[in-house]
Amino acid sequence: MKDGVQELVNAAKRNGEVINFDVQSWLKSVNVLIKEVLHFEEEVRMKRRCLYRWNISRKATKITQDVRHLQKEGTFNNVAHPAPPPMIWSTFREGFKDFKSRMTHVNRVIEVLKNEDVRMIGICGMGGVGKTTMVKEIIKRLEGLKAFDNIVMAVVSQSPSIQKIQSEIAEELGFKYDENTESGRARRLYRRLMEINSILIVLDDVWTELDFEAIGLPSQLSHKGCKVLLTSRNEDVCKEMGSQEIFTLPVLTPEESWELFREIIGKPLDYPDLAKRVTNECAGLPIAILTVAKALENKRKYEWDDALKQLQSSAPGSISSMNDKVYSKHTMEYGWGRGYFSNIDSVEEARNRVHSLVDKLQRRFLLLESKWGDHTKMHDIVRDVAISIASRDPHRFLIRCDAEKKGWPKIYDHCTTISLIPINIDEIPVGLECPKLELLHLEGERYSENSMDIMCKGMKELKVLALVDMGGISALPRSLGLLKSLRTLSLNGCYDLTDISDAIGRLENLEILSFRKCSRILELPKEIGLLKHLRLLDITDCDRLEKIPHGLLSSLSSLEELYMENSFRKWEQSAAESEDKRMASLVEVMSLLSNHLKVLVIDIPDFNFFPKDLYLTIQTTIRFHISNSLGPSPVRTPSTRAGCYAFENKLDIVESDAREFMEIQIVRVLFKKCEDLMLGRIKNLKYVLNELDQEGLQHLKVLTIRECPEIEYLVNGASWTQQTAFPLIQSIELWGMPKLKAIYHDQLPQSSFINLRSLQLDDCPVLKYVFSLSVASNLVQLQSLSVAMCPQMKEIVSKERREHETASDIIAFPKLTNLTLYELSNEFVGFYEVNKLYSNNEITDEPKDQNVVGTSYDEHQSSRSFERVATCES
Q1: Whole-prediction pTM value?
Q2: Which H helix or E strand runs over 235?
Q3: In this predicted model, what pLDDT tens digit does every residue of 858-871 receive, in sequence order?
Q4: Is the confidence at residue 87, as pLDDT, over 80?
Q5: Which CATH class, in words, describes the domain spanning 88-93+103-248?
Q6: What is the number of other CB atoms lying within 10 angstroms of the CB of residue 182?
Q7: Any idea where the domains of the chain sit in the sequence?
């Protein structure tokens, strides 16, 4: 009997099952009894005298009873049961590195998962950045913390299978489905999950929105203890599925990449400099670093050299700033020329389409955010794949970033797009024929008119031509007129260009013309007026341009966007003696508003050049950047133009009289529509908002005021209406304000300044405090505060409270992370003299101002750290 049970047990063990406890106990008892029987038999042989027979008889009776008892208990329905699944983390390979770029996210995710109100969290990032590896580390740490009763993980993938997801979850919970249908399995899984008090379900590699009900996952309302952690390459998926928190995982820093690479190699590197270059080509992607490092382990130098060459083969490293910027401006201009925008009627609509697509690609991590706000970046590996795809049929893009070495391509007749950087145009072969070419982008130093003629004759279907930073072009050749299909012409940075008159008028289908930074052009040729289809004209930074013939601009009846910053300034204010000497006037420009003009960027000598009888309605749709600051000025703010035309409505007004420019109706309307306002050295201006816009500058986001000698308050509440002041303002900079007494005086509506994020005060000698209690309570968005060279400043929040204000009105600026206090009063007491908002123990690793004293206002503030704190005694 024992042998039969043992055989069943052995079979169960081979199947990985767990032997039932009663079976194990029975077998143990049987083995003990067998030993007793053997010992008894030996005793019988040794003790045959009559004296011992009675004792032996008793033992025999006892053994017989035990045998019968075990025989009775030795009948089992099952000797074993399926083994429970192993702890999920026990199957994970080691591989997570506690880099700073990772640990910040790991700790934050764990912290958020502990929040009872959070049901779903998303972790997103580009493919290969390490999302799955990080999630596995999070699971291991959660298991150690015993934060959940169960943690399960299912891989979703690009083509999700509900049945596969259900099976993976069930397997890790240790049960099998009897049901065959998805709906039946969903009900079974739902019931099982509802039995678990707290469970974390990890869904890895999610590409599209999942139907939780179809899978069998309970909702937050039905099971608050069931949380979901998902990873995806698409931020939109995380949002669509209802993630309450989304974490974006960045690529590794160069230092982290190098550390990981060395660790994988596992021994001193024979070629450290070469290894660093190879590591840099992996561009911070852990999966690329892992693959390349393992492939090069124990390899010889020539194999390392070859690997580096292959990694660099399609990487446009020679393009200036290529790794930092992908130009949205070029995307729109080139796309428009190629006719890519279907059902689009205007350049602005096309730009909006581009921005929407860029945002979508960023959310899917095919494009990355850049430190340049109006640009985007493309990861090296994504770029290489994109170039590879674009080079095949039916696209046939030819993109070379080392064209200076390789010269003009030998195979080009099937190409639709060619981009060569840098290239010498004088290398173009005679007899060139590119019958399918629609877009040509060239950057280089050398140019020859003969090569340009060859190019124009062989590319008659060309729709987009960009000659960028091309030296040696003094005039456009007449052969350019052969390009009858040309819709976009970009000559940006052609610094030798002086004359475009010969060919430009013959490009009758041209819609976008840009020659930014062509600083030798003195006159805008009248032939441009022949371009009846022209929608966008950009002559930004043509700083020597002195003549635009009268009537030229007004003849551009289809013009939608005009960019002239740091360019022509000699606007006609009154008619000249002879017609040929007349210049373009602002009356011409403004007349275009009645046609199609939607964007206007100009410099003017004086706002009085705007006719006072010219009327502009607030309903007029126009984006603008208008400045009367001519040339370098200590009060002029940095330009908002950056090449993609995505600026905010901006006014720069310097060295002017407020009483005079406020008499001009157009200026008053521009103030109401303005989003970015700079005022410098303005006379006759005491209360900014009261005198510029009684409606409160409802659209303003950025305000910069410098060296305005008479300003006392931004708002004087004593003469203010109930209109909210600065409801959208995000940034305020006040500098060199000798009479500024306070940001505002008296009372303001509750929502004033509610979106303020950055405040900078410099050289305000009579300013004693920054905020009153009532306004301070609104500043929940404030992130950066800088107060410098204010010798009368005694406190940030005024202790001079009104009757309705109490200490409880104070808040502790929960988002403030950058604080600068410099050269303030010797009597400076801190944020607030009575209820101090911050304590010295929060200002670490920086020189401390002994005057910044007090205790934390709230318990939660004690754990908050600043990104930047600078303090200095006066």
Answers
A1: 0.72
A2: helix 235-240
A3: 333 433 445 555 55
A4: no
A5: alpha beta
A6: 15
A7: 2-81, 88-93+103-248, 254-312
